[in-house]
Amino acid sequence: MKKDSETYSRDVLIGAFFVAFAIIVQTWLMGPAIVFLDIGLVIAFLVWVAQKKATAEPDIVGLYLAAVSIQCIHFLEEYLTGIQTEFPKPFGYIWSDQQFVTLNLVWLAVFVVTGVGVHYKIRLSYLVVYYFAIIGGIANGLAHPLLSLMKGGYFPGLFTSPFVLIVGLALLRRLMKGSRILRPNSVSG
Question: Euclidean distance between the first and final Cα of the chain, in Å?
Answer without folding.
Answer: 9
